[in-house]
Amino acid sequence: MSYALARARGQILSLLTSQNLELAESEIREAAPGHEADLAVPLFRLARELSQDPALLARSIVSQLSLEGTMFASVRAEGGYLNFRFRPEALCQEVVSDFSRNPEGYGRSEVGRGRTIVIDFSSPNIAKPFSVGHLRSTIIGQALHNIFSWLGYRVIGDNHLGDWGTQFGKLLCAYELWGSEAELNRNPTSHLLELYVRFHQEADAEGGTRKAEGGMSLEARAREWFRRLEQGDPAARSRWEQFVALSTREFNRIYELLGVRFDVTLGESFYSDRLEGVVRRALERGVARREKPLAAARGSDEDVRPDETVVLIPLDEQGIAVPLILQKSDGTSLYATRELATAEYRIETWHPERILYVVGKEQEFYFRQFSAAMKLLGHDVPCIHVSFGLIRLPQGRISTRQGRVILLEDVINEAISRAAAVVTDRELSAEEKAEISRKVGIGAIKYADLSQSRIKEVVFDWDRMLSLDGDSAPYLQYAYTRTRAILRKAGTTQPPAPPTAWPQLTSEELPLLKHIAAFPDSIVAAAESYEPHRIANRLYRLAQDFSLFYDRVPVLRAETPQLRSARLYLVEMVGTVLRLGLGLLGIEVAERM
RNA sequence: GCGCCUGUAGCUCAGCUAGGACAGAGCAUCGGAUUUCUAAUCCGACGGCCGGGGGUUCGAAUCCCUCCAGGCGCGCCA
After folding, report:
1. Under DSSP, is residue A119 helix (H, G, I), strand (E, B) or coil?
2. CA–CA distance from A207 to each of A154, A198, A220 (Å)?
3. How confident is the model over A527-576, as pLDDT tens digits?
4. How far is the CA of A231 from the C1' of B55 (A)?
5. Which of A37, A88, A394, A526 sits a CA distance of 20 to 30 A from A195?
6. Which of A255-259, A405-409, A446-450 has the lowest mean pLDDT?
7. Percentage of chain A exceeding pLDDT 70
């Protein structure tokens, strides 16, 4: 299956091949505005290789090209460029033919058929509040899931909950000291947060040297609690289960609001009985070894025994100076141990061609270690860190410990109520308004993130994240409702039929066709770079050009019936592309706003 | 100290993977458009030594070096 733009590029390639000129498809690009051209081929590289003047080469190529049987009306030499212009009716015919074959699947492809990708995303920590910090992983992961599925891949979206580790030792310890059953049931998240924050405050206050009563520092007691948990101590286990259940309920409410779903939700704890095997096999293969811990790394802790060892994977030969530690000196596991077990499980279970980790950029170094360790352990499935810049607050970085945190649910609710303020004066039922506000508010939040590249860090700003005009989700959603309004008023319940012949295209119509033609490419580009904003940017330009079209070109009152039905079909295509494209970004549309 | 990322208009960002045609948007500001397919819209104006310097090239926002600024990371946290 191919799409119009790819076929057009193919035609250019074969035109040039017939003149013995070799060109890569990527050298064919959209013409810059103001050149009366649609596709452009810069000839500078070829000219250098042939030692010719680019402008002369362009002219000589043009003089020998026959556009017979192609989608192009003209080709001109302009400087060192070949500038191709579509025959508008040919472009129309090709785009309409692509679209009408399967409107609801427009932009789909089969490149991923028979291939599997695991995407690890969202992955919040149990017993901590779901903050704006988890937003990016959640919505970028969701978008990538949609995008790869659309390209025919089998995608396993896995929410790798942080439900295991030393932090639970801390929480169990804090709960033993200061917890309250009643408070926990009344307000689980904030009580757990309180305990977590208090633990760190008191541990800091103890300092590195002064020991608490009973001879053990808080940190040491927390480690002891985690050790008990990891060894299956019933009291630790049942308390932990309670924390997990309470947090899960909270998270699910957020996922419901965001419209995010997972194929599997397997927390770190799921792998707890595989950790020993991971460590053992790494030792047996000679990849890992036991070592005395570095004294400096142990800090000033009190209970160091002379015989204690850690298990680690040295990575010097991989060019990484810091080894990956698999087992702490008290015998318990680390994040990396659980990650290795997780990756092995995923490989055994789903046989993916790659595993994507949608995780913040601050973990980049760790992922280099992890990826190198996977290779040493004999796994050739690429583990790709799809990293993104972290969200900071104007006061500094988000810190759960210091209680400096903005709850995602608050952001969502604020977004919805800001959207609701705009719908108030419309003639809609209360339910419709609520539904629209939800779609618009959530859409605004998601779009703010998905319309820019992942890697940049974001300083949280209410107005920016919840913007409702300009380059924003509501702008695109609004353009969609305009397409729906026109079609609703067209007087038929049938979707418009594809036109057999297109009348003269106006200068407002042609750009729409070009964007529609370019939409499938934007999906491929988004997948290749793991950058959903490739799609967002294309949709935004489509919506811009549609808004202008809407303002200037009458559809229902078009001059002739043929023109009217052709434009109706164009409107149908624009609306569908907006809906499908926003859908890939995880953003819903409304019929009215 | 070492490593990675970022620096484009007053603000927020595209463009950098594979160097090419006068660097594009949105917000803000100012001016205009509505008895019309809903103005969450459209049109126009204003606004940029693409962080500084050097290099490669016919050509650099894009590639290389260097400096500056900000962010992040660097063995038993996740």
Report:
1. strand
2. 51, 14, 13
3. 999 999 999 999 999 999 999 999 999 999 998 888 898 999 999 999 99
4. 61
5. A394
6. A405-409
7. 96
Q: Which of A376, A311, A383, A296 is nearest to A347 (CA)?
A: A383
List the structure tokens of A140: 């970028």
User: Comparing C-alpha atoms, which of A569, A515, A525, A523 is closest to residue A546?
Assistant: A515
What is the C-alpha radius of gyration for chain A, rounded to an integer number of angstroms? 29
Q: Kindly state the average pLDDT of the residues A230-236.
A: 90
3-state SS class at A1: coil
- Going along A402-555, which residue ranges are E strands? 458-459
DSSP A355: E
Distance A219 CA to B62 C1' (A): 50
Q: Which residue is nearest to nucleotide B78 (CA to C1')?
A: A335
Structure tokens given for A240: 């932990």
Q: What ipTM was assigned to the predicted interfaces of this complex?
A: 0.95
Mean of pLDDT values over A289-316: 73
Q: Report the pLDDT averaged over residues A300-319.
A: 77
Residue at token pair 């959603």: A477
Go through chain A and tell me how many residues it has: 593
Strands A354-360 and A289-291: unpaired
State the nearest residue by CA to the C1' of B11: A464
Distances (CA, A) of A306 to A293, A326, A520: 10, 20, 63
Strand B nucleotides in reach of protein CB atoms, 7 A cut-off: 3-6, 12-15, 17-18, 20-22, 24-28, 37-43, 58-59, 70-78
Pairing type for strands A289-291 and A39-42 reads unpaired
Q: In angstroms, how far is CA A578 from the centroid of its own chain?
A: 18
CA-closest candidate to residue A166, choices A219, A235, A244, A231? A219
C-alpha–C-alpha distance, residues A272 and A283, integer Å: 18
A503 CA to B28 C1' distance (Å): 42
pLDDT tens by residue, A576-586: 999 999 999 99
Q: Please report, for residues A243, A246, A383, A400, the alpha-carbon distance to residue A185 in angstroms, rounded to integers and kept in the order given.
A: 10, 8, 40, 21
Q: What is the 3-state secondary structure (H, E, C) of A526-570?
A: HHHHCCCHHHHHHHHHHHHHHHHHHHHCCCCCCCCHHHHHHHHHH
| Closest protein CA to C1' of nucleotide B13, residue | A452
Element of type H or E holding A194: helix A188-206
pLDDT tens-digit readout, A367-396: 999 999 999 999 999 999 999 998 988 888
Parallel, antiparallel, or unpaired for β A116-120 and A154-158?
parallel
Q: What's the farthest any 2 CA atoms get from each other in chain A?
A: 93
